[in-house]
Design brief:
The chain is mainly α. Helix content is 70%, strand content 0%. The chain has helices spanning 9-33, 38-57, 62-78, 86-110, 127-131.
């Protein structure tokens, strides 16, 4: 990274959380839009997992980041539980890859020992307030 350039890791994580939650909700909503098949039921179950993953990404856990980096791309790569409508499947795959790409820099930065730890109660506090 160049001097003066910094990523806002919390925004990246929140964007990934929003995409994961919306993707999960839409996968669950497919039960009302498509004929019910065993594959569609598994898609809705996957959607429920995405909703839980999205809720986890709104927190501070590294485990949620690790799951977000691995699970959605693996689902897309293996083509698990494909939707019958090709456009929706492409959109779902794009969301999966977006989730992973948004979480990757946050996870990488969190592995650094210099990365500031974010406690749940001190998210809005500045660095000067924590020294006092």
């Amino acid at each position: 990274m160049s001097a003066g350039y910094s990523l806002d890791y919390e925004k990246l994580r929140n964007m990934a959380a929003i995409i994961a939650t919306l993707s999960g909700l839409l996968q669950c909503a497919s039960l009302w839009l498509l004929p019910t098949t065993p594959v569609l039921l598994l898609t809705a179950f996957t959607g429920a997992v995405y909703v839980v993953l999205g809720l986890g990404l709104f927190g501070i856990s590294r485990f949620s980041l690790l799951l977000a980096i691995t699970a959605p791309p693996v689902r897309s790569w293996l083509g698990l539980f494909p939707l019958e409508i090709t456009t929706w499947e492409w959109l779902r795959t794009a969301a999966d890859i977006s989730i992973a790409l948004l979480c990757l820099p946050v996870f990488w930065a969190s592995l650094s020992p210099d990365f500031e730890s974010i406690e749940p109660g001190s998210r809005s506090m500045s660095a000067d307030d924590t020294d006092a």
